[in-house]
Write the structure tokens for this entry.
Amino acid sequence: MNESTAAGKPFKRLLLTGAAGNLGRQLRGALAQWAQIVRASDVAPLDDAAAHEELRAVDLADRAAVTSLVEGVDAIVHLGGISVEAPFDDLLEANIRGTYNLYEAARRHGVKRVVFASSNHAIGFHPVTEVLDADAAQRPDSLYGVTKCFGESLSRYYFDRFGIETVCLRIGSSFEEPKNPRMLVTYLSYRDFIELVRCSLFTNRVGHTVVYGVSNNPLKWWDNTKAGFLGFNAQDSSDEFRNRFPASAPSSDLDDPAQRFQGGAFVLGEPMERSR
Ligand code: NAI
Ligand code: 15L
């Protein structure tokens, strides 16, 4: 996809799922630069549609609604779903059934590019002493992480069988700023997140790519050399926040599993019962 085609907006219509969430809110505005129409969707309320936006309230677990949601879009940025550890039945609906529904709708409607928000929790049980690249084994640290591994495998299948290209973003910690010492390593600034999505949408022939969503932080657990063809160059760094956590270096106590493994406190979770 060339960034400077008709009307300066190379995509006619982009679909964004999870548009009401933390990262969806950051991306909504940026997508307007790249698409004539942004179809913004979430199960949570969305308001203030801009002139270029179509807002759709859709539960990803609803197959018929997702099939209709995907009709007429050129590409999808899939951020929607449960973004932390949760009861299995909830994860099953939002993250597993929801992601399947989305890919199946993409196949039916001929959509050829998806950017999938995976997570560092797909590899969270690797120790902090290892540097991982795109070929590192999946080692999920939670049921949430297992659902991200499912999304990575599902997208691999939809590429190998149906030619739908996906960039799986193994996002570290993308917030306004790092919230704890671990996030000095895993931090992804919002600006770098948006740039990573841009590279994932505009690079020709991504096939099935795994890339770590991380800023140019001083300490690194992840190596993006194998995804270098995306042209992603992080501009920001957690270094500007290092004085927020003066007493503690990340991973200073390797007897503590939450410091020994890359997933942090996620490695200590246990399956939860549904509350309703
Ligand atoms: P978030 O929790 O703020 O946003 C997720 C959105 O998905 C919410 O607006 C929620 O309403 C929506 N959603 C949940 N279940 C849904 C369903 N059944 N149908 C339709 N929509 C549903 O999370 P955030 O931070 O915006 O993350 C976006 C994506 O990136 C998530 O998939 C998350 O797992 C992933 N990610 C985020 C990281 C971060 O540091 N922000 C790190 C790693 C991965
Ligand atoms: C994630 O996958 C979550 O969506 C986010 O809320 C953070 O917990 C992040 O990982 C992290 O590892 O910091």
The pocket of NAI (ligand 1) is lined by residues 18, 20-24, 42-44, 59-61, 79-83, 94, 98, 117, 119, 171, 173-175 (CB under 6 Å). The beta strands are 11-17, 35-42, 53-57, 75-78, 113-119, 165-171, 208-213.
